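As noted in the main text, all predictions were made from sequence alone. Below is one such record, for F-box associated domain-containing protein.
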Amino acid sequence: MSSEFPLFRLPLIVLNHGLKLMTPFEIDHIAGEEKLLKFYVPMEDGCFGFRTFINHLSFIFNITLTDLELHFQDFTRDENEIIIDLYCGNTTRNTNYAKKLTLVGESVSTPGDDELVNHILNRQEAECKLTLDMQSFTFNIRRSQFRYIPNQLVIQNPNWVTSSDIKYFNSFSVLIFSAHSIMWWWYVENLIERWYFGWTPNWTVMMIEFLFINIDDIINKIRERIPDSDLLRSEETIEGPDGLSHRIKYSINREDGIIAEFLVENNKYLYIRSRDNTDISLSTFITKIKPMM
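Prediction:
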């Protein structure tokens, strides 16, 4: 049963002593009540108080804040702004901030929600990973003036993503889950053709999850415009932790000497390496992101 004792209004010395007397299980229980605390503590006091709580936990257990999951539809624009500034921003004044940010929208987004997400993206400073998990069909990420570009961008429910967005993404790696629309086949075809004729994306590696994809069919549609001498197809079956995995890979060489790789695994996952600005191979990239799938 939760208590309405104003823990975060205690003097810092008293709060610090109280936290040191708590067991990890008691602290975990209090952390689980964060959202409940918001209802009986004014938003400003609750946010700043819990910020103090996080800092004390970091000091006591010698850990740092790493992840923030924000259900942005539960808060007003001003409240979201306060939360982002306290937990995923202001890096010049506070080094204990979230390096990974997940924005969750549980209901279908309104135009106001889309605008709110853009506002959050303009303020966040998640340097490692940004996850967008929202139910939107109209969100335009190209309107976002990112304060900080995360190393990895993860998109769940990509109903709002267009071929122009794929061109716009500029994180090192981009992961797109549940790309179930048939339009995604055309997006891939368009991406391969644009890349071959000179366009180079800002992102380096990408994963797209399909219900089903046939990479041979996609390549055959553009084969007349890409000479066979610039296409190298390979196929293999490997054994992994989840059993046998069938892979088809196309290595495509373009005029400037850059080689891109397009690998499809089990007709479901497409992995792309579009630039040669990294020593990370496509197989290493696949291994690194497997735990997320």
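The first strand starts at residue 67 and ends at 71. The CA atoms of residues 63 and 233 lie 47 Å apart. These features were considered when defining construct boundaries for the mutagenesis experiments described in Section 2.9.
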